[in-house]
């Protein structure tokens, strides 16, 4: 592992971003977390930033200076406010797109000039960006756009040696699941190939690999971290989890 690698992780105060910061710190990276919440993970340098604030992101990017990886994990899921399109709460729609899509773009815009050669950007999509998710128009639209933008950025920034990949988690045990856990009762978990949600760490460890210096020819990839959920053909039964004979 080369020395003196620095990463910026937005949404790094908790959840998948927090676990990514922990993973990178364990591997010897210097980590800066950006979050609208006031506390980062121990060992990281924390900056209170709302990712919708373009000027503040540029200010912090200039303060931090050269980095090797940017992870855009800040995001919201206002799904409980969604419903059929005619009932969709327009404020929730705009807020979701502002944070998940425009916020991601503003992070790339602010930090890209400071990313060293052979650096990496890892965006956070979702299985909702590559498949259907019920009554979540704003969230689905924002994540589909992040997937599309990741591919464009991978091509645009390749000439500068910067790799851009998108990690698309399935349902993961974080604060984002608060309020919707009842939908993941034992009964519906069996609809997932592994019959459980992902841990934060299982998603973070994939992000950390993409930040690293080994995956130098991997760019424009959209990687589901969903235990096989999107690989499954709807309606096709799959073997239930069981003790191996
Ligand atoms: N948890 C899941 O099931 C799941 C599944 C697929 C994709 N994702 C995506 O992964 C990313 C991380 O989600 P998570 O599950 O860790 O959620 P989380 O709620 O645990 O963490 C999200 C973090 O983003 C921060 N944040 C939100 N809005 C912000 C803003 N405007 N400015 C700065 N920080 C802001 C929050 O303070 C929080 O620390 C999100 O983009 C989310 O859409 C999560």
From TrEMBL:
Pfam families: adh_short_C2. It comes from the Bacteria. One of its GO terms (molecular function) is oxidoreductase activity. InterPro entries: NAD(P)-bd_dom_sf, Sc_DH/Rdtase_CS, SDR_DHRS6-like, SDR_fam. Keywords: Oxidoreductase. Belongs to the short-chain dehydrogenases/reductases (SDR) family. PANTHER family: DIHYDROANTICAPSIN 7-DEHYDROGENASE. This is SDR family oxidoreductase. It comes from Amycolatopsis acidicola.
